[in-house]
Amino acid sequence: MSHSLLDNLRIELPSWAFGNSGTRFKVFGTPGTPRTVEEKIADAATVHRFTGLAPTVALHIPWDRVDDYAALGTYAADHGVRLGTINSNTFQDDDYKFGSLTHTDKAVRQKAIDHHLECIEIMGATGSRDLKIWLADGTNYPGQGDIRGRQDRLAESLAAIYQHIGEGQRLVLEYKFFEPAMYMTDVPDWGTSYAQVSALGERAAVCLDTGHHAPGTNIEFIVAQLLRLGKLGSFDFNSRFYADDDLIVGAADPFQLFRIMFEVIRGGGLDESSDVALMLDQCHNVEAKIPGQIRSVLNVQEMTARALAVDTDALAVAQEAGDVLGANDIFMNAFYTDIRPALAQWRTERGLPADPMAAFAASGYQDTVNAERVGGTQSSWGA
Ligand code: PSV
Ligand code: MN
């Protein structure tokens, strides 16, 4: 693979992907699951060591709360990675039953704002650039809440948080069209997120989680539009068959991932100067977590390499000539190109294992942590 943009690909791993997760029916424990944030970071660093693709780890607060964040940063650096995006969490406290930043009660809103200020303080200690906000706020029944009033309170709360976003920091606002609210979500779509972050200012942008759209949504169109507007802050990559399944990115629809990465590249999202953060937001409910993350970053790399293989000059000629089938052929040729041998060579040239999945399996890392991590409480969505 000779394309230089491939070397710019960096994928941030979510700390919570290394903990146990599940559905509302069952969370399965797995041997070797981290008990602490340090153990999650050690696992994330292992993914990076085998792939060279994942130099940062996102934290979720309070799941990853520690006393000394600077020391945690040093721990990460000692393992060859850095701490990345700080995710806030206003969806697991009784006070937030009827909303957090949108709540009608000023005291609850203030509590949610204060939580974000704590996250910004953590960012100062970890050197993290991004504060990522996803809200579970919404309503279940028509008439339950004042849609317009909730938007106004959201804008006010976000402005109070944004005031504290320092130079070199950003606020990214994630959208999701349903769940846990089932009738109306307060930030349901990219348009609402865009409207809210645009009102805040330059240091606020949209986070696009690929699992957060209605079936059939043309996600690459949203990618193209947000990049065009300079407001695509970050991705939460995962894949879905039905709802917000949080499966391995590229597992359900590799072609969609290819189309998304094509638009990322087209919009400058992979340029050296780009500040688009490519993150994973996944749960490994039944598969092994570390190889699950290795598979995920490899899938992103593979579809990026294929997207880079599109002959864009020939494509432009075909598009301008109105050559519908010719243009589609050029696009599909790149998608159907088996880029795996070239990527194996790319890795070998960089001192990485040609086959990271096989190398991890042979490394004995999993057996070691299975033996070492006995006792304590395995990390999960609550801890
Ligand atoms: C919500 O479904 C979400 O995508 C948000 O990013 C949360 O912070 C995350 O999942 C928790 O896994
Ligand atoms: Mn997400």
From TrEMBL:
<dbReference type="GO" id="GO:0008740">
    <property type="term" value="F:L-rhamnose isomerase activity"/>
</dbReference>
<dbReference type="InterPro" id="IPR036237">
    <property type="entry name" value="Xyl_isomerase-like_sf"/>
</dbReference>
<keyword id="KW-0464">Manganese</keyword>
<keyword id="KW-0479">Metal-binding</keyword>
<keyword id="KW-0413">Isomerase</keyword>
<dbReference type="InterPro" id="IPR013457">
    <property type="entry name" value="Rhamnose_iso-rel"/>
</dbReference>
<dbReference type="InterPro" id="IPR050337">
    <property type="entry name" value="L-rhamnose_isomerase"/>
</dbReference>
<protein>
    <submittedName>
        <fullName>L-rhamnose isomerase</fullName>
        <ecNumber>5.3.1.14</ecNumber>
    </submittedName>
</protein>
